[in-house]
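Example record

The entry below shows one chain as it appears in the dataset: sequence first, then structure tokens.
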Amino acid sequence: MAPVLGLRLLDLKDLEDPQGAMGDPESLHFLGKQGFAAEFPRPPTSSAGSP
């Protein structure tokens, strides 16, 4: 089941795709490094060029 809130709330279901018209399933990949949180404790609150 897809992790989209609307699919759970509205009881929607994924359609079957026997001919593969929607393509291959997608996947998510995450990368990180040791010490990232210490090096970047909080994200900036605004862009440098914002008023």
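Notes for this example: The chain has a mean pLDDT of 77. The longest helix spans residues 5-9.
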